[in-house]
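Lab manual, section 2.4: Encoding a predicted structure.

Procedure: take the sequence of the chain (653 residues), apply the prediction step described in section 2.3, and record the output as structure tokens. A sample record is shown.
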Amino acid sequence: MNSNLIYENLKYLNLLSKDYPTVQRAATEIISLESQLKLPKSTELYMSDIHGEYEAFNHILNNASGVIREKIDVALAKDTTSEENAVYASLIYYPIQKLDEIKNTVSDMTQWYRTTIYRLIEVCRHIASKNTRQWVRQAIPKGYEFIIDELLHAHFEDHNKEAYYNQFISAIIDTNTADDFIVAISDVIKRLAVHKLHIVGDIFDRGARPDKILDKLIKHHSVDIQWGNHDVLWMCGATGNYLGVASVVRICAAYNNLEVLESGYGINLRPLALFAEKVYGDCPAFMPKGLNPDDEDAKLVAKIHKAISIIMYKLQCQLIRRNPCFLMEDKAHLLHINYKDGTIEINRKIYNLVDKDFPTIILKDPAKLTDEESELIKKLSRSFIECEKLQEHIRFLYSKGSAYKVENGMLMFHGAIPLNEDGSFREVFIDGKPYKGKALMDYCDKMARIAYFGVDGTREKRLGQELLWYMWCGKNSPMFGRSNMTTFEHVFLDVPELSVEKKDPYYDHWEDSVVAEKILAEFGLEGPMCRIINGHVPIKSKNGESPIKANGKIIVIDGGFCQAYHSKTGIAGYTMVYSSRGLSLRAHQPFESLEKVVLENSDIKSKVDVFETMKKRMLVEDTDHGKFVKSVIADLKLLIQAYQLGIIKEHKN
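Recorded output:
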């Protein structure tokens, strides 16, 4: 026995003894933990670039990216048809809605309840089989712990208990609680199907309801988030930073999605609408796609879009002036316009502007806000800061989110690790100091937190807030991964080549396994099962592009959840499932509707590509959690030695 090691850790072991006061208690815990190490690795689901598409996201979450239907087919293989399994699948996904539909079509509900409950128990038992009984109990909704636990561990072929188990089912039906029971066990199935959910960035923007997505994620039992550039923009806005607020409102207007601000978060946009209506005439260049340009409501949205855009571009000029290290002088557009001629100079060339009406520009200082604009952005900023729901969502992004995450051999980040043309890590100078590779990601993470949680009025907090905006669209930003954002060029110039956003050299090298392995090593990962999980750049599946890069070292799971990308990508998003048996990519077709799932038992059509099968089934002991469990076991064994040597006394009652 190593008494020196005990004395070195005596303070910690004394604390540990509070939870395990006797040799027996410590030994029992060791037995439990060592047994857990031999369980199969739990299933992880990876999603990215959800972009406010709540219904599609919700369905992927409900069907566990196809995992639940796979489990149903295995669990009920001997007893049911594929058509029956489709009914059980839609029932598990949406139990309340499906039960309403079934009651309109089934004549003998008592028999239907009996058969269905038995089969749902079989599905749940199959999914629960690789979890500890304690973990399963924690997944059961309050009030059903005893009933579901008993039924999951029932042996219906046990004749001694046959009447006992059958009475459970009969009592559930006779007491008119069958619906509640089906909802409860469906929730257990969905929770157990995926142990951990990874969101690799971009929850916000484009789609209608990112707020509902965050409401759903907050309730999820185990989730982590790697911030995307759209996420950090909303984080910037939530700090009250004027440019962050203006940028959030502008992108909502550009996608005709002001509803998320007004209905989702209760942000009052009426003062902005009144200002836009008063100051600007028709703004066809600012009309969101898909709207009727002759419709009066659409015209107002275009005016709002222009009004907030001009405010944003003024604030952008001011921020770029304060931060020359951002190397974004070329994006101070309003300073490069000849307002008399209606032209702008870009890369030493002169271009005509599509829209030449600038009623709020002060020619002596184009970056200066008018008094009305200043008052508007001040009110909007205050609304963002005082919105309880928005602040709750942003705090959740901070508590569950980070610039990157390393877990079970996977390096997850949204955009890119900035590289030079030769594939080496690029140094990015911020506030006079160089950062690259992992150090750059760590710095971004640190400053993002200071932006929100730092001391008001300090230089460091202001820099953090302005860095959040830089992470959204700045050259060398790892979340953005491009050289420049061309929103100004899209609206003001009819020159397609100026609207191209050049990608970081990272994307030129993401087919190179040597570069991929170098990035992985930078984050402490080596070995054949280590990979980069990327989002941000939609994979054009319809053109034959593969999401698997660098001989499988990089997996890109942005297949275009956003409806605006469907025509470009040919699909509606990739997800990845990492189970004990291997890795599989799932390419999804667009989600049609909740009604179609309920009425027709349809599901998202998905193509499953199993691209890595384990030679030996992965166990908990092979995971990062397994490493942690082993460290706890070692500590408990040391505590037992301390008890046996009398260095720490047992606390027997």
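Check your result against the sample. The CA atoms of residues 585 and 609 lie 5 Å apart.
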